[in-house]
Amino acid sequence: MKNTPKRKQRNKPGVVLFTAVAVMLMLSILLTATVSFVSVNRTKTNDNYKSKQAYLTASSTLESFINQIQTDTAPTNDPTAKAQQKKAIDNLKKLASANSGKGTTTNVSYNGSNGKSDNIGTTKITVAQEGTSAKYIVVTCETTYLGKTEKVAAHISTHPVPKPAEYTNTIELVGNGGAGYDNLNVIGDMAGINNTTGKIYRFTNNTSIYGSYLMYGSLEVSTQPLIMLKPSLVDEKQGSTVTISENLDVSNEFHINSTMARADGYNYVNIGQKLSTSNHMDVGSSGFDVDLFCCEANIGGNDYTQYGNFYVYKGAGAYNGDATFGANGQTINGSLYVEGDLNVTKSLKVTGSVYVTGTITGKDKIVCTASNIHEGAVLSKAGRDAKPQIPVSADAYVYYPEDFFMSNDTNVTTISDKYQAFYDGSNTKTFNTFASDWTNVDYTLTELIDLTGTGAKTPVTSRYKLRITSSCTWASDLSFNDYGNGSRILVDVSDSSGDIVIRLQNGLNLGAEWSPVIVVRNRSTIIDTTTGDRKYNCYFVSDSGSAITLNGIDSVTGKSQHSGSSACNYSFKGLKVFDYDTYVRMFDSSVLNNTKGNPGLPQSGFVLNPTSVDVAGSYRPKNSSIIFLFGENTTLNATDQSFFQGSFYSPQAIVNIATSGLGGLVVTDSAGGKMTVQCCAVGVVIANSFGNANTAFYVYTKPSTTSVMQNAKGGKDDYAYGYELDRYDHY
User: Fold this and answer.
1) H/E element, 117
2) C-alpha closest to that of 670 among 613, 621, 616, 608
3) Which of 307, 295, 301 is nearest to 349 (CA)?
C-alpha cells in the first residue's frame, strides 16, 4: 500500500465508464444502503488504455462516493437536514460493521448497448471497518476492465463534532469593557459580542465600517464616522445591518448609507433603546433605503435626513415608544411609525405616512399629506414593519488558546504536542538554529505560479535571508548584522513539517531597525474536499507556559475554564507577515529578488479581493492558514507600518495594531469597485481589547477551516454528524 496524492487526469476516454455511477450511486448507498446496477455504452479501447481506464473508473467512482458523503453530511442548522445527516452517517457505519467488520461489498456491472451484460468491466465497492470500530472506515473501489484490475481506497473517520465555527467579523471584541476608535476603518463586519450591559463604544475622526456592525452596549458618535452597508463578505447574497443593543448618541455628524437597494432582511439600523442626535445624522440615500428602529427617539440639533422608514416601538422598562423631533431641518423620505406619543417641535417633512398609536403634539409642524397622518393607529409590526430581534447573545467561544496549547483531545486541538515540546525540552530549536544550517540561509525559491488566473503558469523567483521548516521559538538570538534591516524570512509548511508552531519568546521586542518580513508558504498536499483548505497551518503562539491547567467545561456557561496561563508582552515595529501566494503577486521581481529591506508599495495592477466571489482582474486569497494564538493576559503592540495577513484568536488578550500599515493597497468589492487604502491587517482580529491609531484599514479574510480556530466556538451541544477524509490510497 502506498500513499499517492498525485492524481491521473480525468479527461481521458475511460471516464465514460463511471458517468452514470457518479450521478446516482452514493445517495442510494448512504440513505437506503442499496446500489443499483448501471448501464453505459460499450467503449472500444486499445489494450494500452486498459489499466488506465480501470484506474479512472475506480478512482472516479470512489470520488463520487466521497463527494456524496460530503454533501449528505455538510454542516447545517436545519433540524430536518441534521436528522438526515445523522441517518447518512449511521447507514454508512452499518455498511462497514456488517460481516463482523469485513463490511459490505456491492458489484457494479457495465452493460453493452443492447442492454445485456457484457464482460467489459466490473467495479466492486466495499465499505468496511478499519480496525475494530466503525468510527474508522475504508472504502475500496476495485475495477476490472478487459482483464486489467486497479484498486483505490479512501480512509475516513466518522464522528460527531461541535458545529464548526463561523468567522464573519473583521474585528470582534470579546471583552466586557467599552472602547474608543480613532480613524478605524473596517472592510467587512465588526462586532462587540460581550453582552455585558452599560458598555460604551466611541467612534471619532472618520472611523468607517464597510459592512455590518453588531454591538452589545451603547455607541457614542462624534467627528464624521461612516457605516457603509455592503453585501456580506461571507455570502454576497446577504445584505448588511447595524445592531446596537442599548443607546446611540450622535453629537457630530454620523452617516449610515448603503450600496444596496433595500430588501427584507437587511438595510436597517436596530437600536435596542434610545436614539439621540444633536448634530447631523444621515440614514440611507435616494434609491438605497435604510430603515431605522428604536424604542425612544430624541432628534435635535441640526439636520436629520433619512431615506427609509423610521420606527419607534415600545421596549423593556421605561422605553414607551415615544419620539421627539426638534432638529433644524429634518426629513424622512419614507414613513414614520410611533407606538407611543409623538412630539414635533420643528418642521418635520415626511414623504410617506405617519402612524402614531398615542397622541401627536405639534401636528401642524408635520409636512405631510393630511390624510396620511394617523393618530390612534394600530401598528401591524409585520413584514417590513416588524422590529428585528437583537440576539440575546452572540455565538459563544467555548475553547480558548490555552485549550489548543494543552488539551489532549484531538477533537479540540492538533498542536498541543508541538506546543508542549517547547517546555519539556524536546524542541529547543530557535530561528537561530536554522540560521546555523547553510541550506536555509540566503534561500532562493523558484516556482511555477498562475499569476493571471488563466491557468497559464510562469516561473516566479523569490529570495529569503532565512528559511524555517519546522516548529521552533522566535527568540532574541539572531544576529542583527545578518538579520536586521527588513530580512525576509520564509516559513515553509509542507506535508513533512505538518503544522508549524512558532512560539514567540516572552518579551520579544524588535525595533524599527529590525522590521522583519515573514512570508508563510503552505504547500501541504492534503486538501479539505469541502473548502479547498490545506490540512496544515502555521501558528504563531504566545509563550504562555506549561503550568496551564484545564479545569473542564463550565456547566452554566458551556465554556472551557483554565488557569495558570503566563502573561506575555510583545512589541514589534515594522513587522510584516504575508501569505506567500499573496506576496508573490503583490510585489514585482525587483522586490522578490531582495532578501532585505522594506517591500514598499504593492505593484501597480495588484487588486486584493476580500469578497466571496471572483472579480475580474483581482486576486482573491484563500482562507488564511496563518493563525496567531495569544493566551490570557498577552499584549501585542505593533507599530511603524506593521502589517499582518493572518487571523488573530486572542479572546483574553490585548491586540494593539497602532500602525499606518501597508500603503497603496487596492481593494475591490463584488461589483468591481476599487478603493486604495493603508492596510494594517488582512484576516480577522478577535481580542478582549483592541487598539488602533492612524487612518488605516482592516480587511476581512476567513481563517482556514482546517485550523484549530474551527473548534473555538459553536452552539452548546450542537453537533454535526460528519466525517474526516484521512487519505486516499492507490494499490
Assistant:
1) strand 117-129
2) 613
3) 307
Chain mean position to CA 554: 27
Alpha-carbon distance of 595 to 465, in angstroms, equals 5
| Measured distance CA(553)–CA(564) in Å, rounded | 16
What gap in Å lies between CA 533 and CA 525, rounded to an integer?
10
Q: Which amino acid is at 230?
A: K
Please tell me the distance from the alpha carbon of residue 514 to that of residue 507, in angstroms, as a whole number: 15
Cα distances (angstroms) measured from residue 492 to each of 49, 518, 581, 704: 39, 11, 12, 17
Per-residue burial over 381-414, b = 16 or more CB atoms within 10 Å of its CB, e = otherwise = eeebbebeebeeebbbbbbbbbbbbbbeeeebbb
* Contacts of residue 158, Cβ cutoff 8 Å, sequence gap at least 6: 89, 92, 93, 134, 135, 136, 137, 721, 722, 723
Burial class from Cβ neighbours inside 10 Å (0-12, 13-18, 19+) for residue 493 reads buried
DSSP 535-571: S--EEEEE---S--EEEEE-TTT--EEEE-PPPEEEE
Say what the pLDDT of residue 60 is.
Answer: 80
How far is the C-alpha of 230 from the C-alpha of 670, rounded, in Å?
A: 10
Rounded CA gap, 727 and 731, in Å? Answer: 13
Nearest Cα neighbor of 86 from 96, 68, 72 is 72
* 645 touches 582 (CB < 8 A): yes
Q: Phi and psi of 538, rounded to 5°? A: -110, 125
- Give the span between the Cα atoms of 655 and 637, in whole angstroms: 7
Q: Which of 388, 395, 405 has the alpha carbon at shortest distance from 504?
A: 405
Cell 484521512 sits on residue: 726
Specify the DSSP element, H or E, that contains 114: none
What does the DSSP 8-state code read for residue 25? H
pLDDT digits (tens, 9 = 90+) for 2-46: 333 333 333 333 333 333 343 344 334 444 333 332 333 333 345
Identify whether the C-beta of residue 570 lies closer than 8 Å to the C-beta of residue 560. no
The pLDDT, as a whole number, for residue 568 is: 98
- The C-alpha atoms of residue 701 and residue 210 are separated, in whole angstroms, by 14
Question: Which stretch of 33-47, 50-64, 615-629 has the lowest confidence by average pLDDT?
Answer: 33-47
Give the count of alpha carbons within 13 A of 672, CB side only: 3
272-281 pLDDT, tens digit per residue, is 999 999 999 9
Sign of CA dihedral 94, 97, 100, 101: positive
Is 268 in contact with 291 (CB distance < 8 Å)?
yes
Q: Which is it for the CA torsion 39, 42, 45, 47, positive or negative? A: positive
Element (H, E) at 473: strand 472-474
How many CA atoms lie within 13 Å of 427's alpha carbon, on the beta-carbon side?
19
First-to-final CA distance of the chain: 5
Q: How many residues does the chain have?
A: 731
Cell of 674: 476599487
**pTM to 2 decimals?**
0.77
- Rounded alpha-carbon distances, angstroms, from residue 48 to 147, 225, 357: 12, 70, 84
CB-CB neighbours of 456 under 10 Å:
9
Instruction: Indicate the residue type of 164.
Output: P
Nine-digit cell string for 49: 488504455
Whole-Å CA distances, 9 to 1, 55, 84, 728, 731: 21, 10, 34, 16, 17
Q: Please, which residues have CB within 8 angstroms of residue 208's CB and are 6 or more apart in sequence?
A: 184, 185, 186, 225, 226, 227, 228
- If phi > 0 it is left, if psi is from -120 to 50 it is alpha, else beta; for residue 70 that is alpha
- Angle at CA of residue 94, ends 89 and 99, nearest 5°: 155
Distance of CA 215 to the CA centre of its chain: 19
SS3 222: coil
